Amino acid sequence: MTHPKTTLLSRIDSPADLRRLSRIELKTLASELREHVLQSVSRTGGHLSSNLGTVELTIALHYVFDTPADRLVWDVGHQTYPHKILTGRRDRMGTLRQLGGISGFPRRDESEYDTFGTAHSSTSISAALGMAVAAQAKGEKRHAVAIIGDGAMTAGMAFEALNNAGMPHAGKVPNLLVVLNDNDMSISPPVGALNKYLARLMSGKFYAAAREGAKSVLKNAPPLFELARRFEEHAKGMVVPGTIFEEFGFNYVGPIDGHDLDSLIPTLENLRDKPGAQFLHVVTKKGYGYKLSEADPVKYHGPTPFDPKVGIQKPATPPKTTFTQVFGQWLCDMAEADPRLVAITPAMREGSGMVEFHKRFPARYFDVGIAEQHAVTFAAGIACEGLKPVVAIYSTFLQRAYDQLIHDVAIQNLPVTFALDRAGLVGADGATHAGAYDIAYLRCIPNLAVLTPADENECRMALTTAFRRDQPVAVRYPRGAGIGSEIQTALGELPWGQGEVRRQGERIAILAFGTLLHPALAAAERLNATVANMRFAKPLDADLVAELARTHEAIVTVEEGCLPGGAGSAVMEALQAAGLATPVLALGLPDTFIEHGDPAKLLAANGLDADGIARSIAQRFGARPALLRANS
Questions:
Q1: Mapped to the 3 state alphabet, what secondary structure does 417-432 carry?
Q2: Catalytic residue among 34, 97, 107, 286
Q3: Where in the chain is the domain with CATH 3.40.50.920?
Q4: Start and end residues for every CATH 3.40.50.970 domain found in the chain
Q5: Which helix (H) or strand (E) holds 531?
Q6: 580, 549 Cβ separation under 8 angstroms
Q7: Each residue of 463-481: pLDDT tens digit?
Q8: CA-to-CA distance for 360 and 349, rounded, in angstroms?
Q9: Which CATH class is domain 323-476?
Q10: How far apart are CA 217 and CA 225, in angstroms?
Q11: pLDDT tens across 527-558, in order?
Q12: What stretches of 139-204 show up as alpha helix (H) in DSSP?
């Protein structure tokens, strides 16, 4: 791939500048924009393949629509880097996903062009419909456009919105355009009937043969060929079967080539001028224009910094085993030991470490698509029949299935194991993806237990413990690697509901939940404090809490989760129930949304590294000489 010198892009500070370009210049701009995305992401890391695939679509949308007066709602938001570059943030791409820099997702407080924050999927049609209805109610002549990926179209919420959008409101169907960005890939390979249906539309032999045959006949007569090409974009619906989208009340157009500006622009112009609910189906290729990403879009979905000339390379020294890898190996080992195990993921096979399980146990692996609510109730149905489902799901995504968790699993006390990856802060993805709330929103549910392992081996044991219980259990663990603890091959268990004292000190007892045990131990060395690895947020080891409260002057709780309703709250509730008035200092994530940035820096900024823990304890309960010497 040759990289053109950037000339046009440097003149684009807003979409108004873009709309002054000629069609020929737009094609040059697309090449420059794609190169800028590649070079930016290769330096900062971030989502690459999805953004390379939306370059022409982004240009066409901003060229045809009067943004920001017209509203663009992107779904999922990780495909918006070209949008950010064209809307005044070109020179800030070097700060992408960095602490204090621009977000990797649309944010209303970052730009007026980011009309709706979208980082979880399948929300765009609902939001854009709301904007369209508001415009209708206010008598405003503006457009609302939802751009939704094919993976996001698998979620029930998208279809709930489609069902609502085609209905008249106050006697009139709102002016809404839904653009389906069909790139045959969400993050994991897409699944389900809808994806197969879309694939059939594009791969039908009759359609392909007719199209290619017409090209060969007409290519020697350019005027006729151009006429036929334009007719094709407007009449393709007569060639392919009727669509389910028309049944929802939409005027369906497509599929068209999402990398062909000569098709995209006139089609969008026609749809812009049509009233009511419109649906445009565009086909794009993830990683388009960068051969390495085209060949392996999963690998280049969210890379760390790399050299674009050589691509992503294996590190010179093997990295530490991640908690996700620990889960993936445990899942295979437990499946070998217990034929009742089945594994479920809502479209996160790679992210949840399930690729090997899928290969080895395909009949026991279920990817339900981006449908978290269905995933949880599906698991409940499986559990009713005596099997043992394991739902691998990010902490932030389980929030989307909260009613199902309570109503379908917990009330019926079904033995479903929830493997909660990405617990705590997640770094560059920011507040939308942080697993900050799971302890608080899970421990209040009857029948449900919550385990907080401190290292990789304890995580494996916690998963085994959870799986063998006859009740719903969640095991939370963070993104990335731990301390590098030796991982035992045996499927050992933790003593149910029991913590352990890891360091015996005096005066102050630190109760650590999860991986913050290790900075707590480091802080305790300075303070000569006792440290307990609690391991269970629920059932809490109330006996250990009471014993430490009686033998120490104060209790300190440490957790990488929200303070309101978290593990610290559980400890205070236990002390109150025991009639103990021991002072408690609860350390955790504050009652605010944590910005994106390096996880270690974010923990330090929130006082959850060793220095911060020691400093908070000293400020609250007084410093010992050893602490003063350590900080001098």
A1: EEEEECEECCHHHCCC
A2: 286
A3: 500-631
A4: 70-80+96-285, 323-476
A5: strand 530-533
A6: yes
A7: 999 999 999 999 999 998 8
A8: 14
A9: alpha beta
A10: 9
A11: 999 999 999 999 999 999 999 999 999 999 99
A12: 156-165, 193-203
- Of the listed 32, 56, 233, 372, which one is catalytic? 372
Cα(275)–Cα(249) distance, rounded to whole angstroms? 12
CATH code linked to domain 70-80+96-285: 3.40.50.970
Active-site residue flag, 340: no
Rounded Cα distance, 406 and 413, in Å: 9
Q: Is 502 an annotated catalytic residue?
A: no
Q: Which two tokens stand for residue 566?
A: 């978290």
Q: 3-class DSSP state for residue 359?
A: helix
In angstroms, the CA 332 to CA 369 distance is 21
- Edge-to-edge strand list for the sheet holding 530-533: 500-503, 530-533, 508-513, 554-562, 584-589
pLDDT at residue 121, as a whole number: 86
- Which residues, in sequence order, are CB contacts of 625 under 8 Å at separation 6+? none
Give 162-214 pLDDT, tens digit per residue.
989 987 776 788 899 999 998 864 444 554 555 555 444 444 443 344 444 44
Residue whose entry in the numeric block shows the structure tokens 């109730």: 377
Dig out the tokens for 546 from the structure.
Answer: 């009471």
Q: Confirm or reject CATH 3.40.1190.10 for domain 500-631, answering yes or no.
A: no
**DSSP one-letter string for 362-429:** GGGEEE--S-HHHHHHHHHHHHHTT-EEEEEEEHHHHGGGHHHIIIIIITTT---EEEEESBB--GGG
Query: Which of these is catalytic: 400, 422, 476, 538?
Result: 400
Give the three-class secondary structure for 223: helix
Distance CA 91, CA 95 (A): 9
User: Is 458 a catalytic site residue?
Assistant: no
